[in-house]
User: What shape does this take?
Amino acid sequence: MSESEVRPNFRRSVAFALAGVLLTTTTSGSAVALNWLWRSDVSGTATVVDGDTLEIAGEKIRLEGIDAPESAQTCGRAKGGTWACGREAADVLAKLVARRRVSCQNKGFDKYERMLGVCSVDGKEINAEMIRRGLAWAFVKYSTTYVNLEKEARGARAGIWQGEAEAPWIYRENRWKVAEQQAPDGCAIKGNITENGHIYHMPWSPWYGRVKVDPSQGERWFCSEAEAKSAGWRSAGLR
Assistant: This one.
């Protein structure tokens, strides 16, 4: 494991420890110091969590500006029928990073403390490549960087643009609405305990329908992802 692979978590921990001091002594110098600690880039070998999330040395990296189909999601084919676009997005991402050094530019952190990154392999930007291949949407709620590239993919009817496809943010919203009607107190996130640890499943997880919550075994329901994370549970990854 290289120094660059372990440094981000260390720097972020230091940043959190110093945040109170820096915020109460706001100067240009303290702001620069906090920015340096906060914005360390990451590089190393990567594993794939899903179609828009990587992990490098324990650091979850959400590809900034794009939103790939959820792992359980299907999309329409040009000549009818469906294909597993969510699984395909994750598989293609895995091929792009396989056995290569991945470099991710840190663009900040989201509310779940995942790093937001623009990642590349051998000089090729992965975020853009996923859009170009029609395996992700431009996530315009947070960034317009890939809007023009998305237009090109749509014009070429690449990937998700060959037929009917539901944007993942709508897919997630619809799945949540259905699940919360059936969950205790509307808390639709399933907390499952396995030999791999304490894992939570969102309503759009591929395994959500198969997971049974058994409170007698310490399993539980969560009302939000933040609640699950703060309780020490981790998300169910594709790989």
